[in-house]
Amino acid sequence: MTKAKVVQFRRSLKHVHERHFILDVEAKDRKDAEKFIGKHVEWKSVAGKIIRGKISGTHGNKGMVRAIFEKGLPGQALNTEVEIKNK
Predict the structure, then answer these.
(1) Whole-number Å distance between alpha carbons of 87 and 74
(2) 87 pLDDT exceeds 70?
(3) CATH homologous superfamily for 2-85?
């Protein structure tokens, strides 16, 4: 199990993808981040509710990844930790 940090919604100039998030994982560059593609992600709220997702690809060249969650995370999820499962 690995930890990652929720950095931001995936967005463009005029549109925000509510279920897509950018995660900062323990990777130095794009090549290291590629090993996380396809792994499952879980975010746990303060109340104990779990929202699951899956890492879909890399984002940029600095070792960040994109994750698509089954439901959108709340805005309070920004700068919190998620768990990457080794399934």
Answers:
(1) 25
(2) no
(3) translation elongation factor selb, chain A, domain 4 (2.40.10.190)
